[in-house]
Amino acid sequence: SLPRFVINEIITNPDRLQKLKTTIHLALKEVLQRIQDDLDAAAERGEIRHVNAIDLIFDAVSLNVFLFIMYPIATEILLPIYGSEKKMLEARKAGNIQTLLNRLKPEVHK
Question: Is 83 helix (H, G, I), strand (E, B) or coil?
Answer without folding.
Answer: coil
